[in-house]
Design a protein that fits this description.
Blueprint: H1 3-33, H2 50-78
Helix pairs in contact: 1-2
Length: 80
Amino acid sequence: MKKRHYYILLFTSLAVIPISFYGLLNNAVSKKYELNDPSDCISLATGQDLCLWENILLGSIGGAILLMLLCIYKLALQKR
């Protein structure tokens, strides 16, 4: 891949992290106010599985961090 593609992937992954973190905060508020029991996962207001969304958001943050590290590594190898 060209150097430009790595920079695009790097900046995209940097943008995904704060957006997903905001989604995690929003999900935590929903879990606090829309569930009767903390062990429940299904929202009483929307019917969505909040635990599934939490796992998806955590996975997107982890994936973005891995992609960011891979891009930094590849860019460092290209500068040699």
